[in-house]
């Protein structure tokens, strides 16, 4: 497979084929999303890592003005309980919604984001495919 075909496939995954995160969040209500999870995959953080890889690129693609801050925390000694959360920050700078990602599958996390955050679906005619 050529490099161009790989790149096209990757861009289509972000813009067209990953359907769940094809939403638009109201930037007057949400000023940022903060995602925190452990660098390593143990202790229930695997779903958060998969969510970061599978769904956040599409969410960012359709919400370019919304900052998405990802904090991955190293926990080499495995003695500290690292938070595994997604926080929606309101326009006043306070947390308006929170999704616990610990011990959840990436699609469960995305479903909970869709339930807790006000959004509208990207119209089918505005879905970008290269």
UniProtKB/TrEMBL annotation:
Indicate the principal place this protein occupies in or around the cell.
Answer: mitochondrion
Keyword Mitochondrion applies: yes
GO CC, any one term: ribosome
A Pfam family assignment: L51_S25_CI-B8
Supply the alphabetized keyword list: Mitochondrion, Ribonucleoprotein, Ribosomal protein
Q: Where in the cell is it found?
A: Mitochondrion
Example GO molecular function: structural constituent of ribosome
Residues of the Ribosomal protein/NADH dehydrogenase domain = 40-120
Protein's recorded name: KLLA0B07183p
Q: Which organism is it from?
A: Kluyveromyces lactis (strain ATCC 8585 / CBS 2359 / DSM 70799 / NBRC 1267 / NRRL Y-1140 / WM37) (Yeast)
Question: Which lineage ranks, top first, belong to the organism behind this chain?
Answer: Eukaryota, Fungi, Dikarya, Ascomycota, Saccharomycotina
């Amino acid at each position: 497979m050529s490099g161009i075909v790989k790149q096209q496939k990757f861009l289509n995954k972000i813009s067209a084929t990953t359907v769940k995160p094809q939403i638009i969040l109201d930037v007057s209500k949400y000023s940022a999303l903060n995602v925190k999870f452990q660098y390593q995959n143990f202790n229930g953080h695997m779903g958060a890592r998969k969510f970061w890889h599978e769904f956040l690129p599409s969410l960012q693609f359709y919400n370019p003005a919304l900052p998405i801050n990802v904090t991955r925390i190293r926990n080499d000694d495995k003695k500290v309980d690292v938070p595994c959360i997604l926080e929606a920050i309101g326009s006043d700078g306070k947390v308006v919604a929170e999704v616990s990602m610990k011990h959840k599958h990436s699609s469960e996390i995305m479903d909970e984001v869709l339930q807790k955050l006000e959004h509208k679906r990207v119209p089918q005619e505005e879905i970008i495919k290269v």
